[in-house]
Amino acid sequence: MVANRSTFKEDLYLVYEGLNQTLAGPFLRCTFNPLVMWIWPGCGLCWLARIDELDRRCRRVGATAQFPSAWERRYTRHNDPQHGCSER
User: Which of 16, 19, 25, 59 gives a 20 to 30 Å CA spacing to 82?
Assistant: First the structure.
């Protein structure tokens, strides 16, 4: 059997592991994990920061140019400037 108590401050897990023959009572394993609930908001914050950085980088480079579609890349010549593809 498992019992779990989660708050933003801490997580407490209680696991029943059987009867203690010496004391004639239950044997429980207790695990205390502080600040576990803050992992998910922290991951979300990292993703938002990454998206913001990519957006700023694209604006800095000037990535407003038209990029060719997959069909255009496949079926047109690679050095045709009309389709936005040029050899480097």
Answer: 59
